[in-house]
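BUG: 3D viewer hangs when loading the predicted structure for this chain

Environment: internal workstation, default settings.
Expected: structure renders.
Actual: progress bar stalls at 90%.

Input used:
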Amino acid sequence: MIVCIAEKPSVAREIANVLGAKQSHDGYIEGNGYQVTWTFGHLCTLKEPHDYTTMWKQWSLSSLPMVPSKFGIKLIDSPSIKKQFAIIEGLMQKADRIVNCGDAGQEGELIQRWVMQKARANCPVDRLWISSLTEESIREGFKQLKEQSNYQPLYEAGLSRAIGDWLLGMNATRLYTLKYGKDRQVLSIGRVQTPTLALIVKRHHEIQTFKPSAYWVLSTVYRDTTFTATKGKYQSAEEGQEDLQRIIGKEFTITDISTKKGKEAPPRLYDLTSLQVECNKKYGFSAEQTLQLIQSLYEKKLTTYPRVDTTYLSDDIYPKCPGILKGITNYSALTAPLLGKKLPKSKKVFDNSKVSDHHAIIPTGMNPKSPLSTQEACVYDEVCRHFIAVFYPDCVFSNTNVTGIVEEVQFKTTGKQILDPGWRVVIKAEAPSGKDKSEAKADGKSKARGSDDDDEENKNEERVLPLFVKGEHGPHEPTLSEKWTKPPKPYTEATLLRAMETAGKTVDDESLREVMKENGIGRPSTRAAIIETLFKRNYIKKIRKSLEPTPTGIELISLIREELLKSAELTGIWEKKLRQIEQKQYSAQQFIDELKQMVNDIVLQVLRDDSDRRKIDTPSPAVVNSNNASTTSDSFIGQPCPLCGKGRIIKGRTAYGCSEWKSGCGWRKTF
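Structure tokens produced before the viewer hung:
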């Protein structure tokens, strides 16, 4: 009997249907020589400190650093998980062969490997590797099964990530909580979480300490068109007034007109991060919400695997593209010009060297069998339109630059005219407000910091100018305007995702951003969860679309002086090493040894600290073993336990406690 194990019941049903397994049992589906079972995501997790030794059960500085000689896994303590695992274990013990049908990525590999290890599976194991759940993709995947050993580097990278997060999270959280948490308030530290919080706090400080300065801009209106002095900003009103007085009452003369044609290529296909960014900017969806929506579309067979970090397709997808375009009949008006013709094959779209595990997110060519939710329809529309657009011609436009002069003071204006919309027929150009445009630049560019005339520049670039003739002249209306420099914008989820993708560096260019993804912090699939974690731990809050650090978050980052813990750049280096482990270019053991050494150095450094680092006393819902703290708000009921992380906060008659108290967790807080 061949046992197939998927990551979700819904995925298992799709696979069973294709394999001809029709008989439903408790926890699996059987038929045609197959037994198809499933997990619920993670069934196993790394052991907790107290599972290694009773010395690590109580939080104490003397027990740090906690570095197990060998890491182990255990089953998550949940009745439903224990029941399903018992079924899986029974099937695997009798199996002739196992097919790992987990999500085709690092996390999916880790989830299923741990289950097979825990179930003591000893038969041969194959790996199903597919990018969509369509019947065609599943059938093709089963024809191309590979030995699981081919994916050992992927597993080692996932295991290294999990162990690294355990080493840093467990040790640093206990270390800072015991050393600097007032009333033993839990101070949560994480390998990706803390550098991300540091980015937000840094931006907050830049805004708070920003000192606006005045400058002046000289402009004039000639033939209903605004021209701006080429001198740029005047640093004093006197300097600007001097030129203003020189040109008042004098005629404006056009000195030069230049028009240059240009082309704009279609936007790249979506990876998960770019989809989350666009949906946050356009629809206000959170990163986590977009991930859930695109995951739902994937499970409905409408889009391909979502947890990807590339915007390219592999060459083998090219022959399938006409069929995909023909299949999305809801977009027939847009696909009609492409059908029946040879599709262009651009290197900006198809590049095997830029695709490792999965290609960019694209539609599968299937139409929805049932109505989509409004939010799902928005995400599906984004994916479909971007896929169609890459096969359309470039947008052709002309840029016009006009210069003029008055009494040796030069002025200029620019305009842009669309000559052939090309792909813009598919993806309509938006006309966001000035606020939205500035938010899109809020990665920290100097423009966002230095001036408020960016919006005027953008308007000038997009407008069509009247017909000017060189040498013409006439009256004009000059104005000297006082302006003030503005601070950088707070992060939105969109701009924070971009900052995480490039380890905090400001990168607007798509090509350069692609190169820098190797050094990004977190994985595309985990960044949304990191942001949600910062919300849950009361380290950040959202004001409209802006992300702001809370007093607790600000204090925590100011407290941490160990740069290794909060540097986005250093965390990006670790992420690059994890990618190199996947590619067999770096040793998993070396990565873990480096993290062990780093944790040891940080513990020694903090333990020796006798400086005046103040203890954090900002109220928080999380307090370790405290029986005299202030009342915890009922809004925190159901949140993860701050001590063991496994249980949830529950309310008793006189105190709040951890739901895992029977297992030995001692977290408790009285009313």
